Amino acid sequence: MDVVDDDLLTPPGPATLEQLRRRALSVVASLPPEVLELGDLFAAAGHELALVGGPVRDAFLGRSSNDLDFTTSATPDETLTLLARWGDAHWDIGKEFGTIGARRFARLDRSDVVVEVTTYRSDEYDPESRKPVVTFGDTLDGDLSRRDFTVNAMALRLPQLELVDIHGGLEDLASGVLRTPIAPELSFDDDPLRMMRAARFAAQLGMTVEPATYAAMTAMADRLTIVSAERVRAELDKLLVAPHPRRGLEVLMDTGLAAHVLPELVTMRDTVDEHGRHKDVYQHTLTVLEQAIDLETGPDGAVPGPDLVLRLAALLHDCGKPATRRFEPDGSVSFHHHEVVGAKLTTKRLRALRYDKETIQQVARLVELHLRFHGYGDGAWTDSAVRRYVTDAGPLLERLHRLTRADCTTRNKRKASRLRAAYDDLEQRIATLAEAEEIAAIRPALDGSQIMATLGVRPGPLVGRAYKHLLELRMDRGPMSEDEGREALLAWWAEQPEAAEA
Questions:
Q1: Domain assignment of residue 472, given as a range
Q2: Which pLDDT score is estimated for 272?
């Protein structure tokens, strides 16, 4: 599952107000002329238009944005009329929420210009509703006051390029502080999802949530329950694919929001063994997540980062430990079958968050397989065991490599070195077998049609059983010819009760 987030940013370093302004000037100067033309068009029709939110914030960080979001005094119908004149294509799919989109196709060697223009508005929730109620406003100041955080509540009036920053967003951006434009209790009551966005921006921008906002998030965490699972999941995805998801997850945990998003993390933290008989599962999980991220590759690599599936698997790989923890008579602690229990819990949680079927299956499978490697270093695996490892992982093999390596968080340097060496050896054996046998595409010597022709049977469960038997032989013996496969199939068939009835 791919997550594309135009807010995905490297956290900014410290900067003075003057440095931020200089960065913004260079970005604003590079705005497509079509944007200024759009400002002239709205002004000529008697309407206000302003670039707002993320694009303005990004400009002060010295980054141009592909998302050009505007706000206007024009009604949706008036906006639609103007954008139809400005663009080569337009759409009104967001008209219910006051948003109209348009595209101006590329001229010469420049890219298309895509804009979304939204009527001044505020979003408010009914106490019992999961959907925001859209109300339109009539001033830019009023619109900005309903934005989530001051750093996103700055606007650039067009066509005059006048900065509007009535809430001190620029100063907060320079200080790396997240603060709501109005009282945080009112802001979060209007839209509880903003609490999730605070955690997300902590992960994306490396910003700190200021104390009053933090306190409101903690007091109002239960309010998140009225927000739809789909909206919560979207924010969680953006948090997890951010440069530093640990920061965002810690905000979720410390404010109590995690109890409504990822309660498994809370359970991990709350089952800390005060006697130190096993490692802190919660802190171990955060470390595994960071180590898995470090093992992601560039765009042309095996696991291009940010990889949501790998990160979710790292986050949930030990979620079955609290339910399986046992204190043994000898004083040790066991977590037998926690990978199986964890896979079930993972499936349940991701379904509750409305993830797609493929993502759920992939993450749960990685959780289920993450312990398979353990024991490899204790005794040599047969080639058959290596083949099974690869076949069971299937297309998840490269992610499994990284999850397994990331799961080593021991401070014992000798043990860590031994585990790395063992996994290096396993990967080398996989590569050797793959070269010799095309291990990634293991199939039995005969397919279903050949099995039916050899046995003279019709399609049905018997064919599936025969196929599975030949696949097991392929795992154990390695490649087989068709003649060897038929011989093995007939030998198996002779022992089946259906053979006597044929």
A1: 448-501
A2: 73
